[in-house]
């Protein structure tokens, strides 16, 4: 709603000049609305001869519009038509904006500006409607929107797997529903006719929690994995290492560049010779610097992995105590596409391959304390391999 007020012409016009903005904001902060008056108000003068909003002949229409809306019986178009029949003149868009404007309830909206947050200020003008009537109407409007499906982005927290979980029979995403039995409510993930696959919500969730537990890392496995990944990164970085040798090389090159410059100034080099030398040296310098950049980038990637692994400790509990938005982010990062249950378990083929390896590694590591070398190698190669986005588990 606030975004809308930012776009009304009065607010847009604030871009005039610093002084105008400052003066206007000062007035707003005193509760004095300045600018062109909205429908239902005219600009009058107060006792100090300053401008103030005064209700005009349209005010009763506006009050009636709000009262009709608040009943919840009519929709916006119906209320608009009723008032139009009575002689109220407005466009539908203006009407729709009007019914959302808190100014009629006595509040002045001040937009955010520089380090000031947006705010509502108690206005000094006479309200046309009460604050309560205003908020009742907003509830009605928002409730309507929901029914129309405009807020369909809201996910039902009872079905966090919805959209990710696919039908094992026909591969369509399962929906979630609650049906009321005689004594109890039953929640299901289900497919549609003619398939009619149903999975009890509690079963699906318990299988899913079990899966999360299986990819959770214990402290032991975490440390081991970090060590493996670190070794792998060290290996890659050896060739790019920025050691004393590299620094020395860079210093030499920079000195050479100064020498060439001196030679040119002293007249020992032609302009062309100088430019050639300069170009060559600069290329060499860039090469060294590029290596440094590559190195720090690798380090960044390593840190990403480390943090990703950190968030895989106790992943089940993290998931259970989070809100539905986080849950869905997490699910999205575990499965590159969608997933299915197979024999009451998450189908392993659906899991992000890196997570899959990690889960497998953890399991083997738990079962058998001897650390299997080939396992380690396989995992580290997978982690360090090209094209694997560590950000996929940036939870
Ligand atoms: Zn199906």
Summarize the structure.
The protein has 395 residues and is mostly helical. It is 53% helix and 9% strand.
Structure notes:
The protein is mostly helical. The protein folds into 2 domains: about 1-145, Hect, E3 ligase catalytic domain fold; about 220-310 and about 350-395, no CATH class. The chain is built from 15 helices and 9 strands. It has helices at about 1-5, 10, 20-30, 60-70, 75-85, 90-100, 130-145, 200-215, 220-240, 245-265, 270-310, 315-320, 325-335, 355-365, 375-385; strands at about 40-45, 50-55, 105-110, 120, 175-180, 185-190, 200, 340, 345. It has a 3-stranded antiparallel β-sheet with strand order 5-6-7. Strands 1-2 form a two-stranded antiparallel sheet. Helix 9 packs antiparallel against helix 11 and helix 14 (about 355-365) runs antiparallel to helix 15 (about 375-385). Bound molecules: zinc ion. The site of zinc ion (ZN) has 7 residues, from loops.
């Amino acid at each position: 709603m606030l975004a809308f007020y930012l776009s009304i012409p009065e607010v847009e016009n604030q871009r005039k000049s610093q002084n105008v903005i400052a003066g206007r904001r000062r007035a707003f902060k005193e509760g004095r609305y300045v600018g062109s008056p909205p429908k239902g108000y005219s600009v009058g003068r107060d006792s100090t001869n300053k401008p103030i909003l005064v209700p005009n002949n349209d005010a009763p229409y506006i009050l009636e519009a709000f009262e009709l809306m608040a009943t919840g019986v009519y929709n916006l178009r119906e209320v608009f038509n009723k008032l139009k029949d009575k002689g109220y003149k407005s466009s539908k868009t203006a009407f729709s904006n009007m019914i959302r404007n808190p100014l009629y309830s006595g509040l002045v909206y001040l937009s955010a500006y520089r380090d000031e947050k947006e705010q509502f200020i108690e206005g000094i003008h006479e309200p046309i409607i009460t604050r309560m009537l205003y908020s009742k109407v907003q509830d009605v409007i928002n409730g309507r929107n929901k029914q129309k499906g405009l807020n369909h982005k809201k996910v039902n927290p009872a079905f966090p797997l919805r959209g990710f979980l696919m039908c094992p029979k026909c591969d369509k995403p399962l929906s979630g529903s609650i049906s009321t039995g005689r004594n109890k409510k039953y929640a299901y993930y289900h497919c549609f006719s003619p398939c009619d696959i149903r999975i009890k919500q509690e079963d699906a969730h318990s299988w899913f929690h079990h899966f999360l537990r299986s990819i959770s890392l214990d402290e032991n496995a975490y440390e081991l994995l970090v060590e493996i990944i670190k070794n792998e990164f060290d290996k890659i970085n050896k060739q790019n290492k920025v050691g004393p040798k590299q620094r020395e090389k860079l210093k030499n090159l920079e000195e050479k560049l100064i020498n060439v410059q001196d030679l040119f100034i002293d007249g020992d080099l032609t302009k062309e010779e100088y430019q050639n030398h300069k170009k060559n040296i600069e290329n060499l310098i860039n090469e060294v610097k590029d290596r440094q950049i590559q190195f720090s980038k690798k380090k960044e990637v390593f840190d990403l992995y480390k943090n990703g692994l950190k968030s895989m400790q106790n992943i089940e509990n993290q998931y259970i105590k989070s809100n539905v938005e986080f849950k869905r982010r997490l699910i999205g990062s575990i499965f590159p596409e969608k997933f299915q249950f197979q024999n009451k378990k998450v189908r392993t083929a659906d899991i992000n391959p890196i997570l899959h390896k990690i889960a497998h590694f953890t399991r083997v590591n738990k079962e058998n304390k001897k650390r299997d070398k080939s396992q380690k190698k396989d995992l580290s190669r997978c982690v360090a391999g090209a094209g694997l986005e560590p950000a996929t588990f940036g939870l």
